[in-house]
Structure to design on (266 residues):
């Protein structure tokens, strides 16, 4: 009986590479043919890579991950699984090479004053905050010096009973929207998944957890009355560092004149 020889360069069919590539391709709604045309290889060769019958070169794997617009942590994960060194560094924001980045972030925060703005990492942990964020916490009766410190997690503060959640007038709506957003982001930032499991019991069951709203107004009870805010995000375009890829600036905007006046006063 004839047998089919498996190339010595093959990788296990259960390798993260053989799982990750098809998963990313399906997420991007690409067929094998479409992806192969983007990268310039045959569909048959791509099929062999996805099933583990052929091991892609480092250059080929990077090209596939680029074509799939894979998040940088997942690109490094795929490279490591295939036996290659990571391609994208993960430096601390305190690294001297990232001084220009820190200055750019500080400029964005300062330019948004007196409205609140926060820099968050992929796990929703606070990295930086502006004066407007401190002003908001003061209006909410929260000690900003204690709250807005390293280790503060915005998702935990908004979903756990008590804390900021207790000050929210439209609590269920906000919790559902944040939960939906965080679940979507967890596909790109694996470090977010343990936090979601921790917070899952606190998500309101009476609200659909896949709720979507075009513009979410968060209404918070404060010493100046009810504050109404909506938010928008700024992120780095085409970052080549894992840390930078995870960072975003969340800008909060007053949704009415009363909120604008309260934030500007002081």
């Amino acid at each position: 009986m004839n047998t089919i020889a498996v190339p010595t360069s093959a990788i296990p069919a259960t390798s993260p590479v053989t799982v990750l590539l098809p998963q990313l391709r399906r997420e991007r709604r690409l067929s094998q043919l479409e992806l192969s045309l983007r990268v310039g290889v045959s569909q048959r060769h791509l099929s062999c890579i996805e099933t583990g019958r052929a091991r892609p070169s480092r250059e080929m794997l990077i090209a596939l991950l680029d074509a799939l617009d894979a998040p940088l942590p997942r690109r490094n994960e795929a490279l490591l699984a295939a036996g290659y060194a990571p391609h994208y560094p993960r430096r601390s924001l305190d690294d001297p090479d990232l001084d220009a980045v820190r200055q750019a972030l500080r400029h964005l925060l300062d330019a948004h004053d007196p409205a609140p703005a926060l820099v968050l990492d992929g796990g929703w942990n606070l990295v930086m905050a502006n004066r407007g964020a401190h002003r908001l916490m003061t209006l909410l009766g929260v000690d900003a010096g204690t709250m807005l410190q390293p280790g503060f997690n915005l998702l935990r503060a908004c979903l756990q009973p008590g804390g900021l959640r207790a000050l929210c007038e439209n609590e269920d709506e906000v919790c559902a929207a944040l939960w939906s957003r965080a679940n979507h982001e967890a596909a790109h930032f694996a470090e977010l998944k343990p936090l979601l499991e921790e917070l899952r019991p606190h998500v309101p069951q009476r609200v659909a957890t896949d709720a979507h709203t075009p513009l979410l107004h968060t209404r918070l009870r404060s010493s100046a009355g009810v504050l109404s805010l909506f938010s928008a995000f700024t992120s780095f375009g085409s970052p080549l560092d894992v840390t930078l890829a995870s960072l975003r600036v969340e800008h909060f905007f007053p949704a009415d004149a009363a909120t604008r006046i309260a934030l500007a006063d002081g």
User: Anything to note?
Assistant: Residues 16-81 form a domain with the 434 Repressor (Amino-terminal Domain) fold (CATH 1.10.260.40). Confidence is low (pLDDT under 50) at residues 1-8. The first strand starts at residue 117 and ends at 120.
